[in-house]
Amino acid sequence: MRTIATLTRTIGVVLAIAVSTAAHCDEGMWTFDHFPAEKVNKAYGVDVTPGWLDHVRLSTVRLTNCTASFVSPDGLMITNHHCLESCLGELSSKDNSLIERGFLAAQRSAERRCATQLGDVLVSTENITAAIAKAGAGLGDRAANAARKKALTEMEQACEQASAKSRSGALKCQSVSLYDGGQYFLYRYKRYDDVRLVFTPETDIAAFGGDPDNFQFPRWSLDFAVLRAYENGKPAATPNYLRIDFAGPKANQLVFVSGHPGSTARLQTRAQLEFDRDVSLPLSLLRNSELRGGYLQFSRENPADMQLIQAPLSNLENSIKVRRKLLDALHEDDLMARKLADEEALRPLLKTASVDPWAQIESGVAHERELYLPHTFIEGGAGFNSILFRYARLLLRGSDERVKPNDTRLREYTDSALPHIEQQLYARVPIYEEVETLTLSFSLQRMQEWLGPDQPLVHRLLAKDSPETLATRIVAETRLADAGERKRLWEGGRAAVGASHDPMIELARSIDGDARALRKQFEDEVEAPIIAASAAIANERFKAFGTEIYPDATFTLRLNYGTVAGWIRDGAAVEPFTYLGRAFERANDLPPFKIPDSWMTVKNRLDMRVPFCISTNNDIVGGNSGSPLIDAEGRMVGLVFDGNIDSIAGTYWFDGSKNRAVALHPAIIREALEQVYGAKALLAELGAS
């Protein structure tokens, strides 16, 4: 039995490990309901009030893959250019690339809808931990995992049904797991499904420096874009919005970042990190690097069609750099030593447990290693990299799942998820046959190579075809590029999809049994035991420390604080601001260091001393792109768009001496809109004087 003294010493050791870095460098991605306001007040003399938190929360928007914020009472939102590359691609054609040329709506009637974009604003949260624990109580890991999913679906459905009857209007409800299962919440969102493009600059200036400058600082990328949320065909009324202080922040000033960090693994075990280091990261790097080579070869052979792969190539290069630096981080002995010390300090808290949770996680990870390749290629879809195949799987599985009771469906096909699926399927977006053939044939080749030609599913698919001939034929013959056909099949349900002989539907159908079997095996042998063991660790950690430790990121709303700061790199000081003039000094006539003609023609009237980018020591990761940088008065003083190269390791740990967020200075936004693009009406709405 643990004595109070022993327990106190143990807690002290773990808490020291958990928060030692945070004490010096403002580490933490805090939920709004447990933001450490007293700590901020003690360190900076700033009072972060509940009203301030509510205003910032209601001004922050979660996009499909990034963050944005309202900046006017009429639904105007600001985010990053790179967050809208899919929208820009959807609104482009071979002859008119908005990615290359940019866009400015002359009036509101000219604003163009991003067909698959969503905007969600967090309205309220509810702790449902007790109800979820009760659902799985007394059950084995596999049964408890299924029971939890059933309960979560039921609670999401009840939440949305109740909100639909309320005076305030229907909300989207999402269940969220925090602290690795230590807590469960229902998050209620106000959803905007009509999001329109207002402005974006040309990619030459938005992504100035390209991949060489990506995750670097100093920086000169005008990475911003403007959207507007609409309701019932009219600009949405958004009384909570952030006013922009175009003067920006000063060095060492306290600043906050409100956004949706994608995911972190700071609370994962050593065994889980070793899996990333030994299996998932190396293999994904190989696949992505080879696909990058395929894209580059396509661009050399078809230079006129370079714009067709510009957005996916940019995303892929970003992914490669991220994974490479994550792998580097996991080879740092210091990280693994810290993780081991953390686990050893926690073990006494769980010594009376019937099963060692760390051993259980190791067992689950061992199964994951065995399943990784077939699960990744078949159920994960890495063997079928095609927009058209993803449509086919949505149609096939949707038709099968929708006939089931809502609480027994695959979670991604519950009633709550269906509107977004329909939005994707019904969207009239350009799909390029040559790119689809490239990506599908490449992924089939890799699946054949890595699973082996004699693997049953691979042999069945390619017994009479090569990856190239199969991809070429199916892409050429499918009708799923037609949004009308997709809508017909979806609305026709199981009968229409079952009767379809579309080759892409038939491909999805031919592998679905194998894919579902792999999914079930993964859920039973990997997911269920790891969730149960992680929850056991999380419960003890949470009992001991509560919300003094922040949860890992889950692409849900978080707030962190830091200061405008440079750092020391290779013995030299890196200043926290860059200025416009240096961008012209670095420029040449070729991408990615080409400044567009729109800027060159007005160069003489630009102020070369205008601040361009800002470096801060805020704790961010992917998903924070587009997050507002906010001052103590609740004004936007910057727009986060990247981090430095050291920030990538923030997935696993935070080093305040060198991890830096990179934001766009509001002064360069005003200079661009005023002097280059002549966007007077937009500037007026943004409050620029």
**Structural class, from helix and strand content?**
alpha+beta
Quaternary structure annotation? single chain
Mean pLDDT: 94
In DSSP terms (H or I, runs of 4 or more residues), the helix count works out at 25
Gyration radius over CA: 25 Å
Instruction: Please give the share of residues in helix.
Output: 40-55%
Major beta sheet summary: 8 strands, antiparallel
**Fraction of residues in β-strands:** 5-15%
Textual characterization of the structure:
Helix content is 48%, strand content 14%. The chain is of the alpha+beta class. β7 and β8 form a beta hairpin. Residues 1-24 have low confidence and may be disordered.
Short description:
The protein has 689 residues and is an alpha+beta fold. Helix content is 48%, strand content 14%.
